[in-house]
Design goal:
The structure is a single chain. This protein is an alpha/beta fold. The protein has two domains: 88 residues, Rossmann fold (3-Layer(aba) Sandwich); 131 residues, NAD(P)-binding Rossmann-like Domain (Rossmann fold), CATH 3.40.50. 39% of the residues lie in helices and 17% in strands. It has nine helices and eleven strands. The strands form three sheets. The chain has a six-stranded parallel sheet with strand order 1-11-8-7-5-6. A three-stranded parallel sheet has the order 3-2-4, sandwiched between helices. Strand 5, helix 7 and strand 6 form a beta-alpha-beta unit. Helix 1 runs parallel beside helix 9, helix 2 packs across helix 9 and helix 6 crosses helix 7. The longest helix has 22 residues. The model has no long low-confidence stretch (mean pLDDT 96). Bound molecules: 5,10-Methenyltetrahydrofolate. 5,10-Methenyltetrahydrofolate (GUE) binds next to helix 2, strand 4 and helix 9. The site of 5,10-Methenyltetrahydrofolate has 16 residues, from helix 2, strand 4 and helix 9. Homodimer. One of its GO terms (cellular component) is cytosol. It catalyses: (6R)-5,10-methenyltetrahydrofolate + H2O = (6R)-10-formyltetrahydrofolate + H(+); (6R)-5,10-methylene-5,6,7,8-tetrahydrofolate + NADP(+) = (6R)-5,10-methenyltetrahydrofolate + NADPH.
């Protein structure tokens, strides 16, 4: 048996087609949503992620505004760039590409983002709304963190049942694991979640009882085939550079051992799984912010 594919490329393409219509409706009312990106330093991986985000925006008719600062930028220079993006009327949502250079207080920078323009859903106000929003229909409308929202959308659009199922999340990071636990346990999603991390005593045992496994730690091929309940859905989020190919390109490995495909019922490829979904949800947050701004 071989796992069915949780196809992030195809699903993200479908979401972008839907977004295109909403962008056209906004255009009729004279609004063009705009994504701002702030990139500090010249890490090639970060640069290529940012380029991908601009490409996605162009596909759906969202404009993009790119701000770059040198790796030597100070805390105050970065803060000023954030304040300018907050004030720029062409920017309906923006992100500060993480990680920021060593020595910069990342949380202090994230706190300066206008919560109404927070395209990542990582501002404390929006994360707080997610904590308070157990019942999402009662919650204040807020942008959701892109990777967790993309994971849930990927499962939903492949009809993988979530309600009442046991989900084991590997990794408690701020962009994936922790907010994913919050999203999965909301009313309407209704999963039971085990959030594991580097001090978890018996990780294979926690994974074995899961109907859905999300690996977001950045440890190449950590998750083994004999950890997987037959038929479970497995989402491979992490990527680690494990060397270079002969042609000089980065050789990347996900968190899931390829042999898992022989046991799992569903598997998200990496690349081509959660990554494109993250980007589609980012565009979705920017479009939603523009829609919200019109209605308030
Ligand atoms: N403020 C902030 N927000 C982020 O969302 C954020 C960030 N900082 N810092 C870095 C991580 C990483 N990240 C990725 C998103 C998509 C792909 C992606 O689409 N990957 C493709 C492959 C891309 C390629 O081939 O270059 C795939 O999985 O198929 C990868 C990585 C967002 N991040």
């Amino acid at each position: 048996m071989t796992a069915l594919t949780l196809d992030g490329n195809a699903t993200a393409a479908a979401i972008k087609t839907e977004l295109k219509e909403r962008v056209a409706a906004l255009a009729e009312r004279g609004v063009v949503p705009g994504l701002g990106t702030l990139l500090v330093g010249d890490d090639p991986a970060s640069r290529s992620y940012v380029t991908g985000k601009h490409r996605d925006c162009a596909e759906v008719g969202v404009s993009s505004i790119s701000v770059e600062l040198p790796a030597s930028a100070s805390q105050e220079e970065i803060a000023d760039a954030v304040r300018r993006l907050n004030e720029d009327p062409a920017v309906t949502g923006f992100i500060v590409q993480l990680p920021l250079p060593a020595g910069i207080d990342e949380n202090a920078i994230l706190e300066l983002i206008d919560p109404a323009k927070d395209a990542d859903g990582l501002h404390p106000t929006n994360l707080g709304r997610l904590v308070l929003g157990v019942d999402p229909s009662a919650a204040v409308d807020a942008p959701l963190p892109c990777t967790p929202a993309g994971i849930i959308e990927l499962l939903r659009r492949h009809d993988v049942a979530i309600a009442g199922r046991h989900v084991t999340v590997i990794g408690r990071g701020i962009t994936v694991g922790r907010p994913l636990g919050l999203l999965l346990t909301r009313k309407g999603t209704d999963a039971t979640v085990t959030l594991t991390h580097s001090r978890t005593v018996d990780l294979p045992a926690e994974v074995r009882r899961a109907d859905i496994v999300v690996a977001a730690v950045g440890q190449p091929h950590l998750v083994q085939a004999d950890w997987i309940k037959p038929g479970a859905a497995v989402l491979d989020v992490g990527v680690t550079r494990v060397g270079t190919t002969e042609s000089g390109r980065a050789r990347l490995a996900g968190d899931v051992d390829p042999a898992v495909a022989e046991v799992a019922g569903w598997l998200s490829p990496n690349p081509g799984g959660v990554g494109p979904m993250t980007r589609a949800m980012l565009v979705s947050n920017v479009v939603e912010a523009a829609e919200r701004a019109l209605s308030t």
